[in-house]
Design a protein that fits this description.
The complex is a heterodimer of chains A (115) and B (527). Chain A has 115 residues and is mostly helical. Chain A has five helices and no strands. Chain A starts with a helix and ends in a 6-residue tail after the last helix. The chains are: A mainly alpha (115), B mainly alpha (527). Chain B: Keywords: Membrane, Transmembrane, Transmembrane helix.
Chain lengths: 115, 527
């Protein structure tokens, strides 16, 4: 039982630390969102573009971290790491989908004249 | 059929074809299959492109590069194949005259591919409520899910029977996920995605035609323009000039002052370069001798570096003086003469570096960098001719870069028609009695050079052994068959690689080498 509680505490700490560690990513995420708003495409296409480039961003961070800790790319394409990356993309997809309303509002404000 | 649907079908089919023909294969005959599909799809989607002369010329260059991928299979031919394919697509989809702007448009295609692909899927207007429902479902599910997870963990800790069931389900899930990628090769899925990106980038035109719009404003011929001083002052470059020249840069006599400065600069630069060229004519053109103890490569590198600096400076200075209204100034005659003399002197410098390279090749044979210097000199000569044309006919920088890019493409395509590794090996081995051979370098050349090396390896090894007998005190360990062993190793590696490929990787270069070794059998051992 105590292990379980420690697990929950650890989970919450990880959530908190993760929030602070990843907050500098806003420097990159914010321009990406703004660029997506400026594109002459439909809102749905803009959102798809945003999801894709956020995934590319995570992939780059992922590669950077792997090269930092492993000092080489051996085993980088393992099943475990692929699963971690897949789960990150799923979470990112959910994050974009749940902010869809705000995103669409932003896109409507920056709508191109020809749309 | 709906055009958007056609686009989706073509891009998906292209991605599948990419996956089928390139998975675990090298670029070879499979490239023809993929390229044929891409070109057919491209001209189907953009039928007007066939009427464009630029597209047709680029298509010719592309087909030459493609043929060379199948015949020579060199890295250079593969690079030229990719560049020309992207340019064909760029010119077919957008209105362009310059390869630079077409490259920009293709870059835009790559960046926008995901949005362009998503745009092809038509939205059913009656479904937004449904999508909203999914979004709401996700939002509603998050908080209950967190609660469920927390209480699940608590009950699992409190109830052993529940914990056993949960553990069993957990173990099954673990097994499922651990085997998930055994059933579906995720590398193959990523490769499919890569195919989708490549095919989509080539076939789907971006809606953001920024570079195409920019290019429509560009002209070849320079036009006289009057810029207000306030607008001029906004430029950082003008501020820099004003800092040096003071009031002379902005007053009524600004153009005259600019002309005078230009004449003085060009006269001084011409005198300086004349001295350098005079030394080169005497030393290189008339009385050249190999100096014992002084490596020839020092001469070549020094010469090339000097040329690069000189040419870049020459271009920058001439572009600066002839950037605007000075082209139309009535008394710019001497400035133009100075520029022509400067161009001519740079052409002489090119000849001097060519001679340096030539002497180096005579002494040490051919190598990549030595051939690279020759191509660089060719491009420099073309650059100088176009700078001359720019000044002579009052052309814009746009013209200069456009013409040079086309020249670069022609040179690149022509360069692919030669298998340089085989050419280097053949040239050097033919002159093995007159040039200082670098055998380790020859052994590092690509597989197509192996038959040539095999024919000469015994003689090369004997020569090396004889040299070692003469320089017996050089401290190197004796090895009578090193080169032969290395060549055998190369042959083994070649055979090993060939076993991994199917007919999709067939190319003439590999087939020739394979055929040679099949006929020849084992490499002759030295006695």
């Amino acid at each position: 039982m105590s292990e379980m509680l420690w697990g929950i505490v650890f989970l919450l700490i990880a959530l908190l630390v993760g929030f602070f560690i990843t907050s500098p990513l806003l420097i990159i995420i914010s321009p990406l969102v703004e660029w997506s708003a400026l594109m002459p495409y439909t809102n749905r296409s803009k959102m798809t573009w945003l999801i894709f480039f956020l995934s590319v961003l995570y992939l780059l961070i992922f590669i950077g971290l792997v090269s930092l800790f492993q000092s080489n790319f051996n085993g980088m394409f393992s099943k475990e790491l692929a699963l971690i990356f897949l789960s990150i993309i799923v979470v990112e997809f959910i994050a974009v989908r749940t902010t869809q309303k705000s995103l669409y509002q932003l896109y409507e404000q920056n709508k191109w004249p020809q749309e | 059929m709906n055009k958007d649907l056609v686009k989706i079908i073509l891009v998906t089919a292209g991605a599948v074809l990419f996956n089928l023909v390139f998975w675990n294969e090298k670029l070879a005959i499979n490239t023809v299959l993929f390229d044929a599909f891409l070109l057919c799809a491209l001209f189907f989607l953009y039928p007007n492109a066939r009427k464009s002369a630029a597209v047709n010329w680029l298509l010719l260059g592309h087909l030459v590069s493609l043929s060379m991928v199948v015949i020579h299979n060199t890295d250079l031919s593969k690079i030229a194949f990719v560049i020309t394919l992207l340019l064909v697509a760029g010119f077919a989809e957008y209105i362009h005259r310059s390869a630079w702007f077409a490259s920009g448009s293709m870059l835009m295609n790559v960046v926008m591919i995901v949005a362009s692909f998503a745009e092809s899927f038509k939205i059913n207007k009656s479904k937004p409520a449904n999508r909203k429902g999914i979004g709401r479902f996700i939002r509603f599910a998050i908080f209950p899910l967190i609660l469920v997870i927390i209480f699940f963990l608590i009950y699992r800790g409190a109830n052993n029977a529940f914990s056993d069931i949960a553990n069993r389900i957990g173990a099954q899930l673990e097994i499922f996920f651990s085997h998930f990628f055994d059933f579906f090769s995720w590398q193959r899925l990523v490769f499919l995605l890569l195919g989708l990106l490549i095919t989509g980038s080539i076939l789907l035109k971006s809606k953001l035609d920024y570079f195409s719009t920019r290019e429509t404003r560009m002209n070849d011929g320079l036009q006289r323009s009057r810029k207000p001083m306030r607008q001029k002052r906004n430029g950082a470059f003008f501020s820099f000039v004003e800092m040096i020249m003071g009031k002379m840069a902005s007053g009524m006599m600004a153009l005259k002052n600019e002309n005078t400065t230009g004449i003085i600069s060009l006269v001084l630069l011409n005198v300086l370069l004349l001295i350098v060229n005079g030394i080169d004519v005497d030393f290189l053109w008339l009385h050249f001798q190999y100096k014992p103890g002084l490596p020839v490569y020092i001469m070549v590198h020094e010469g090339t570096e000097l040329l690069i600096v000189s040419i870049v400076l020459a271009m920058a200075i001439l572009l600066f003086f002839f950037k605007g209204n000075l082209n139309f100034y009535k008394r710019n005659k001497w400035l133009k003469y100075g520029a022509y003399a400067w161009i001519l002197q740079n052409a002489m410098l090119v000849s001097s570096v060519f001679l340096r390279d030539y002497y180096y090749i005579l002494k040490h044979g051919l190598a990549y960098k030595r051939i690279g210097v020759l191509f660089f000199l060719l491009m420099v000569l073309i650059g100088l001719v176009t700078v001359f044309l720019k000044i002579w006919s009052r052309k814009t920088n746009y013209f200069l870069f456009r013409v040079n890019a086309w020249a670069g493409i022609v040179v690149l395509v022509l360069a692919t028609t030669i298998h340089w590794d085989e050419f280097i090996a053949g040239y050097n081995l033919k002159r093995r009695n007159t040039v200082e051979l670098d055998v380790p370098f020859l052994l590092s050349l690509s597989d197509k050079a192996l038959p040539l090396l095999d024919t000469n390896i015994v003689a090369l090894q004997k020569r090396e052994n004889d040299t070692r007998v003469i320089n017996v005190n050089d401290g190197q360990p004796a090895c009578d068959t090193c080169f032969i062993e290395q060549l055998k190793q190369r042959e083994k590696q070649f055979e090993q690689r060939q076993k991994e490929y199917t007919w999709l990787s067939w190319n003439y270069a590999d087939a020739y080498t394979k055929q040679y070794f099949r006929k020849r059998g084992l490499i002759t051992s030295i006695h």
